[in-house]
Q: What sequence folds into this?
């Protein structure tokens, strides 16, 4: 009983408000979008039968974001989500030998504060709280809590080696 | 001589079986999908003239997965692929000074076992074997073999620093 | 005053040249594509009013690449961009307490040399120079300069632990 909804801004130069009406038809009371929530392009939302999703006023989602909610995802006001940010408040269970798809989920609520910026390809996992005013760098996996007003980046210890070329 | 095929599940609430018929028209015998293989949304497959791709029964692909096959990619039964998982059994060669696109590929077969769960944005590179029952965390690049029944995550040593704000 | 343009190659087996005509209508002189630039599927370009973007002859973009330009992005000849490569020559400012979206951007030009290969999900950040002939591995975030003829990979120190299962 999941839903997948695609929102398209046909007029690219305008950021259109996502209309709450679309949601309330399917799951009245469980999806709550503030004023002036917008998405640049396609955004994917999936909610399980017990899932509730709240997005505060003025929050913006860049291309390809995906919010997946079995329990509760709460996103504050005036956040900026970069491209392909994914948020999952649940994991597959995998502690028995049976098929993964039959083992169900472990869920834990996610809370993202006001005025947060999540960079490209950030993944937010179940049970995480990200405080107000945080900046999360590109490609970071957030698996534990982030205190308010923090900047978080991946380890940038890249391996750099010369390429020896021959002809 | 590559192909790019897009499969769309128009009815989102149902997971439709990918029909083998589509493939066999182009490359009879080289793409083999088991029963009840499904894809939530768009899935991208590319096969070179020598490529062979096998996907076992009951394996599921979330949005935006991409399988790219010059030699052989074998995926087991009942796997769950997260969003944007990409699998490449080949790399560009870059050992000479000529144009990259003219240097061709190095290929090595990939094998992913049964009942594996690959998280969002996982990238699986050439020559890798992932054993049965593995769980690969979000954003991991798999460049070497993973023994069966392993859970694999990126280093989660994030750099977290306070933001000092002024008005 | 940004633009979002989508290019689709309807004929997948042919790599179609991106026509410069499309761009010059909107921002004459600010987007410059060389000969035989191609994109496999959708490519997203965003330019601010001061942005300039140059792409050299023969450069190829795989599915889902995104170039975002407030100042200047210069990409050399014969590069290969993997899937979902994103390039941003600007960051949101976040040094005051006001709303993120009102604080504007910090921009710094990006230069990517000739004959570079950027892997899947690579993110290139503002101010970076990548020398000629570089190879950047999947999921790498490039936040500082890369000397010419380098191969760059993420730390591949994965955490691998056994899964203990019970029935």
A:
């Amino acid at each position: 009983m999941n839903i997948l909804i695609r929102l398209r801004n046909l007029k690219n130069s305008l950021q259109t408000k996502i209309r709450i009406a679309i949601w309330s038809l399917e799951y009245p009371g469980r999806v709550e979008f503030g004023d002036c929530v917008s998405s640049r392009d396609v955004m994917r939302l999936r909610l399980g039968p017990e899932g509730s999703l709240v997005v505060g006023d003025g929050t913006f989602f860049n291309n390809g974001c995906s919010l997946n909610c079995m329990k509760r995802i709460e996103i504050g006001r005036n956040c900026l989500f970069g491209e392909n940010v994914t948020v999952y408040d649940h994991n597959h269970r995998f502690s028995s030998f049976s098929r993964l798809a039959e083992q169900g989920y472990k869920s834990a609520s996610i809370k993202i504060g006001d005025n947060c910026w999540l960079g490209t390809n950030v993944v937010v996992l179940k049970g995480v709280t990200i405080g107000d005013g945080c900046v999360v760098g590109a490609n970071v996996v957030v698996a534990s809590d982030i205190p308010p007003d923090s900047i978080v980046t991946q380890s940038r210890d890249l391996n750099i080696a010369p390429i020896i070329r021959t002809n």
